[in-house]
Here is the input.
Amino acid sequence: MDDATPPAPAVDAAPYRLALPGGAVAATPLIFASPHAGRIYPAQMLAASRLDRQTIRRSEDAHVDTLIEAAPEVGHTLIAAQFARAYIDVNREPWELDPAMFEDELPAFAKARTARVAAGLGSIARIVCEGQEIYARKLTFAEAEDRVRHVHLPYHAALAALIAETKARCGHAILIDWHSMPAAAASGRNGEVCDIVLGDRFGAACANAVTSLVERELGAMGYRVARNTPYAGGYTTEHYGRPGRKVHALQIEISRALYLDEATLELTSGFAQLKQDLERLFAAMAAHDWKSL
Here is the structure.
């Protein structure tokens, strides 16, 4: 299952992949999203990069889309970004750009002054891995605009439509945003090591009933689960999570040590067990009565 060196695809590839529940399976109010497992690296990006594809790929939430691919079988909707997060990060504000990365003047609306931009991790990342600079030249705003308009905006238009349709059908919608984290970052409160972090913006983005069910099910399987530390939820969780409006958003970060060799991006023997356990979680979430939300 290793695809460490996939062929360079066309830039006009679909920005996302959508999988809906089929057959006799009843659709649940849950939408699963994978924003950071995309493996499309357009040739124009690679030509501008000082790094090789494999080095850039280390910023991926590698194979998370594969870990959750069975979700539609029990009724959950799945949307997965196809383009690499290093090309355009759909878990950021669309115009969260670093002016220092561009040769021309950015429009006022694109001159972001966020902590993520300062860290080199805006919607177009400046760095990967241990602070390695991606680009060998300055980009143009036209390049950034193309990435935003052809990938970021369509992805979020589709996600927003799924949420609206689900809420209209069920009375509420539950968005689960799936990620993986470096093993070195997998520490919870007081520095203890954890396997999985649940980020609900400290309760602001998601009802406790959702977070608690996930925490309980994973804990029963033997996983060490933390809440909101070190990841409380990113742009997607913050942007869509509105419990008062019956839309809940929960970010789930999985330690890569559970299933992946972080240096080679090859799957380890732990992948099969983790995937099986997650599918048990998906089934429990599908069986739960969410009407009280």
Summary: The longest strand covers residues 173-181. Residues 141-170 form the longest helix (30 residues).
